[in-house]
C-alpha cells in the first residue's frame, strides 16, 4: 500500500504514553498510545485468575459491532515502531488473516490505549497494528475452534510474529490464557452483519492440528524466489518451499519455511532469520 507523504516519526522513541504522527506534512502531537506502542506487549502466562474471571462464555459476552466514528487518535496514515513502518487501513471491510495471537493483562489494565480509551482487561477488546480504530473482528482459535467477537481499540503487538493482542477477557474466551499464544484466524465484521455472526458464535470443528510456516518473501519473478530459497537452504532452518499463486495479471512466488511443530519453534526460526538480515518474515498457518 502506498505511503502518504509526511515526516516519519518513530513511536518507539516518543515519551512514554505519547507520540507524534505525520499527516500530509502536519504533526499531530499528544497522541495517546498504550504501552503497546512504547513497551511492546508480552504474552502473559501467569496472571492471577480470579473467580470473576473464570472463563465462562457468559462471563465475557461478545462485543456487539455497531457503527462508530473513526477514532480521532490512533489512526494516522502510517506510523513507525522500532524502525518498522505500519500503514493504517482505510477500512476493515473484507479483512482476513491468520497468525499468532497473544494477550495482555494486569500490567496494562487502566492505562491509555492508542485510541485514547482506557484499556480494560475484562472487556472484549484487542490491539492490532493496522486495522482502523475502532474495528470489530471475529477471532477463532484454530487449535480448539473457540471464537469471540472483539472490538479493536489499540495498537500492537510489536513483539515477535504476533498478529493480534487480545484482552484477558478475550483470551479467556479463546482458551489461551495459560499457554499465552495460539494460532488464530481474524475476520473483520461489518455492523450490518453482527446479528448473523453472533447467532453463529458456537465453537467450530477443528480440521486437525494447525501447521506453522514462515513466509520470508513474495516475488513477482521466480528467479528472485529461487535465490531466497537457496539462501535459506544454506542456513538449514528447515524445509523451504516456493508457492506460486495468481494475483491479478501476474503470478506471485511466495517462499515458505516449515512446517514447524509449534509457536516456540516458529519463534526460534524467526529469530534466526533476523540474524540473517531477513526482517520481514511473517507467520502463515495452513
UniProtKB/TrEMBL annotation:
Residues 206-286 form the SPOR domain. Its EC number is 4.2.2.-. SUPFAM superfamilies: Barwin-like endoglucanases, Sporulation related repeat. Residues 49-60 have a biased composition (Polar residues). It holds the Pfam family SPOR. One of its GO terms (cellular component) is cell outer membrane. GO terms for molecular function: lytic endotransglycosylase activity; peptidoglycan binding. One of its GO terms (biological process) is peptidoglycan metabolic process. The keyword Signal applies. Signal peptide: none annotated. The keyword Cell wall biogenesis/degradation applies. Residues 46-69 are annotated as: Disordered. Keywords: Cell wall biogenesis/degradation, Lyase, Signal. InterPro entries: RlpA (IPR034718), RlpA-like_DPBB (IPR009009), RlpA-like_sf (IPR036908), RplA (IPR012997), SPOR-like_dom (IPR007730), SPOR-like_sf (IPR036680). Belongs to the RlpA family. Lytic transglycosylase with a strong preference for naked glycan strands that lack stem peptides. This is Endolytic peptidoglycan transglycosylase RlpA. The lineage of its organism: Bacteria, Pseudomonadati, Pseudomonadota, Gammaproteobacteria, Chromatiales.
